[in-house]
Amino acid sequence: MKKLEGKVQHIWCSVAITKKMEDVFVGLIINQAQSGQEEISEYVVYFSSLGGSPFSAISLYNFIKSIPQKTTIYNMGTVASAGVPFFLSFQNRIGVPDCSFMIHQTTIPRTILPEQVNVFDLDTQRANLIATDEKTQKIIHKETAPKAKSPLTKKTIEHAFLKTTTYHDNKALSHGFIDKIEIPKLPDTGVLYITDQYLATIAG
């Protein structure tokens, strides 16, 4: 693959993982690629999130894995739940001191169910929850094991999901969630911000 030469795009992203966030993040990168302006050689994302949609998280994971640019991400404090697969999609992963990662079983909002629920509806959602748990656990195992001094086994990850588990900075480093612990230095200009305030300005 031809090595890209261009600028580094910095993105501050401190929002829940939602379909809207997914569309905005993916659209930003695709629009830059199609704009005909200076090529981006690397995306550096400064990320914190309490979670959100596990379905969008897996879509984002696959999108980031598919782009040709170098990718780097910082855990700026807390990455939880659906934020973890997104974080693990990046090539270079760094955590600030005292950062943490939290994993647990997949949940869905009650509003996703119809007002009147039958056995088929419940079985369908149960199957979706199990499948999403399995996909997320596979991502965690696949992406952490090669970087870990103390790799998590598939059984360990499954057990961690069942009881809800938080890995703080040193444990996260040992288990391969991050490559190192350090404070980043954001550039003075050129940072794109994806925040709740910004998303509120976008229709949809």
Descriptive report:
The protein has 204 residues and is of the alpha/beta class. The protein has a single domain, classed as 2-enoyl-CoA Hydratase, Chain A, domain 1, CATH 3.90.226. 40% of the residues lie in helices and 23% in strands. It contains 7 helices and 8 strands. The protein has helices at residues 19-34, 54-66, 83-88, 119-144, 154-163, 169-174, 196-200, and strands at 7-13, 40-49, 70-80, 92-95, 100-103, 165-168, 180-181, 191-194. Strands 1, 2, 3, 4, 5, 6, 7 and 8 form an 8-stranded mixed sheet that branches. Strand 2, helix 2 and strand 3 form a beta-alpha-beta unit. Helix 4 (119-144) crosses helix 5 (154-163). The model has no long low-confidence stretch (mean pLDDT 91).
Q: Descriptors for this entry?
A:
single chain, 204 residues, alpha/beta, 2-enoyl-CoA Hydratase, Chain A, domain 1, eight-stranded mixed β-sheet, 8 strands, globular
Radius of gyration: 18 Å
In terms of structural class, how would the helical and strand content be classed?
alpha/beta
Text of the CATH class: Alpha Beta
Number of domains: 1
Layout of strands and helices, then pairs:
Blueprint: E1 7-13, H1 19-34, E2 40-49, H2 54-66, E3 70-80, H3 83-88, E4 92-95, E5 100-103, H4 119-144, H5 154-163, E6 165-168, H6 169-174, E7 180-181, E8 191-194, H7 196-200
Parallel strand pairs: 1-2, 1-8, 2-3, 3-4, 3-5, 4-7
Antiparallel strand pairs: 5-6
